[in-house]
Amino acid sequence: MPRTKHTMPVTGKIPEHLPASDIVVLAQVAAGKHGISGKDINIILNDRGTRNWADIGISSVYNCLNRLELYAYVRSEQQNREGHDVKLYYVTQTGAEVLLKELKYRLSTPKIVHDEIGISIAHLPLLKKQDVLKALKSYMDLLDEVLQYSESFIFPMKQFSFLLQNDPGRRIADRTIADIDPRDVELILALLERPYREIRARKQWLREFIEKVRDGYVWCADQPPKVQVIAQDKTQKDLEEKRKERGKKGIII
What is the CATH number of domain 3-108? Predict the structure, then answer.
């Protein structure tokens, strides 16, 4: 008989929303209908490349499992497998409900991510122009490296059907084309393309900002900024007139 470990009482307040690492682990436990070990979860995360888009290390998996068990979202059993005692985890009814709630929440609610480059941009008047340009060039080079790395995954996945028939041994990270479940292709592409397009947009903004620094429109320690005067075009004037009319009529929208 497997030995069931009774769920420990929660000593602290359960957070309103779980961290991303807990959700990833909880999802793997929920998918393991016959129980899953921490080791098995780490293998799955490695095989699926989950660590490329979720910040979760090997030891983090066990920390997540301990927390989830304290919250009564999972339960554990000690079972004997091939002569070895293994702790297997199972999702509870509460855990399954929380998982669905968390997944829906993250699909419906954008999260504002603070990029540390903003700290430096806010204090550019303390830096010299050439130092700013040199640093931004390095930033741009790193973005290019990330884009090239992403393309090495995205382009083969876009050719998945062709490669599956003609080159099933083609490797993408730690897996071959033949190892990938065709049902996962669009999900994998979504995970890869979303950050890829965001980085391309960031690169476009950075290119324009570098030009403004180079042309003297951004305040640096050794460069008082030029004032850029932009004439109001007809479209902008029309919008202003419409806003005034809405205000007179008491129309909010």
Answer: 1.10.10.10
